[in-house]
Design goal:
Helices cover 8% and strands 32% of the residues. By secondary structure, it is mainly beta. It folds into 2 domains: 279 residues, Pectate Lyase C-like (3 Solenoid); 68 residues, no CATH class. The strands form 3 sheets. A 12-stranded mixed sheet has the order 1-2-5-9-12-15-18-21-24-27-31-29, covered by helices on one side. Helix 3 links the parallel strand 1 and strand 2.
Length: 412
């Protein structure tokens, strides 16, 4: 049963925070700062990086003389006195962006930028692969977690809002110092709009607490992305941010199929939240896990208002067409009260909980507390929680226009 699994599931970092005596409130921290870099004078428009041919000492970030590491390019961007009004793009050549090539992990992006890789679709060995692991001291500081409990490859912090395209993010060589430590390929405290990218890429270890994306009071929008993790694919929770942060503090996840398949494949749960996150998904394939979606993540701070969860036909107008097929325990599992989930026009495990043999619900069904099955499970004490399934609503026809004036009768 779900409750038995929940008693065993242990999100290591949250557990470590509980041991450390986390209290609600604002954490005092300072985003990661780059080392000394000579500021650019002319407005910065682009930077080029190539781990094979570039140089962090002799390069200048041009296409002819690229830098060798993303770490260097981000430091130059952060120190720039003037940037283009159209923004800055960092172009990454194919290659392995690892510690041997000068990267310092986690790579922290503290400012607005577009990051564009190359050769995506050929796998991390042939494409642009951000490949490494480092202690995530920023996250540890935010939540007052003990040292050596959080690790990441890439971190985006406020006020950064980045566009991210055609990149693999993960770690081909990964070890953790203890069973109380956790790894995320991406720690998102700022905002990211990604497309055609892969998170949790290149991971071959079977270690627990190795995960895809952590959305810590950040915003994650991903079109046609592949996300994998040993425990979870995407986790979203509210964390206390410094009072100077421009972020609303409400975590959000938006996943969609755009130009290619969009999949999440985790061993335990694909998407897990603390109940505060806004979640929207359309055209998403949920694979391999015990659960596709859960709201069972232990909160760090009180969650006064539940987030909006729209898997089709809900308040955010998701188009549905998600594939909730293959979860070993249950697709959508709810443990908290007052959680409202709309999931219309999706595909489910066939012949389960009144789904037909094609895995569709031809009539609207609202599951409430006490529901238990392969498609939807809601604990009996999750009062007020519902999961609505069924066909997409038929659009209301829009009037063709205002009728013309009534003709005046012609006198005879």
């Amino acid at each position: 049963m779900l409750s038995a699994w929940l008693s065993r599931f242990f999100f290591a970092v949250v557990a470590a925070m509980a041991i450390a005596g986390i209290v609600s409130g604002t954490a005092c921290t300072r985003w990661g700062q780059p080392g000394p870099v000579t500021p650019t004078v002319a407005p910065l428009t682009s930077l080029y990086v190539d781990p094979s041919t570039g140089s962090d000492t002799a390069g200048n970030g041009s296409s002819a003389k690229p830098y060798k590491s993303i770490t260097k390019a981000v430091a130059v961007l952060a120190a720039a006195k003037s940037i283009s009004s159209n923004g800055v793009t960092i172009f990454l050549a194919s290659g392995d962006y690892n510690a041997a090539n000068g990267e310092k992990f986690p790579i922290v992006v503290p400012t607005k930028v577009s990051i564009m890789g190359s050769n995506y679709g050929t796998g991390p060995k042939s494409g642009t692969f951000i490949d490494g692991i480092g202690e995530d001291r920023i996250f540890e500081s935010l939540v007052h977690a003990p040292a050596h409990t959080a690790y990441a490859t890439l971190e985006v912090v406020p006020p950064a809002s980045i566009n991210f395209t055609d990149v693999y993010v993960g770690a081909s060589k990964l070890s953790l110092p203890s069973s109380h430590a956790a790894y995320f390929s991406l720690d998102l405290i700022g905002a990211m709009n990604a497309s055609n990218s892969s998170f949790g890429a290149g991971i071959v270890t079977s270690l627990r607490n190795v995960n895809g994306v952590l959305v810590a009071s950040g915003s994650f929008t991903c079109g046609s992305c592949a996300i994998r993790g040993n425990d979870f694919g995407v986790a979203a929770l509210t964390v206390p941010l410094p009072t100077t942060s421009p972020s609303s503090g409400v975590p959000s996840i938006t996943l969609m199929r755009a130009t290619a398949d969009s999949t999440i494949a985790a061993k335990i749960v694909d998407i897990i939240t603390d109940g505060s996150a806004n979640v929207t998904a359309s055209g998403e394939a949920f694979e391999l896990s015990k659960y596709a979606f859960e709201d069972s993540l232990a909160p760090i701070v009180p969650v006064p208002v539940r987030g909006t969860v729209d898997f089709g036909g809900g308040a955010v107008h998701s188009g549905g067409l998600n594939a909730f097929i293959g979860a070993r325990n249950s697709e959508i599992a709810i443990v908290r009260g007052s959680e409202t989930i709309v999931a219309l026009d999706d595909f489910w495990n066939p012949n389960q909980q009144r789904a037909n043999r094609n895995g569709q619900y031809t009539n609207e069904i609202i599951f409430g507390s006490g529901a238990s099955g392969k498609n939807v499970t809601i604990l009996g004490n999750a009062a007020g929680s519902t999961v609505t399934v069924g066909p997409a609503a038929v659009p209301t026809p829009t009037p063709s226009g205002s009728p013309g004036p009534t003709p005046t009768p012609t006198p005879t």
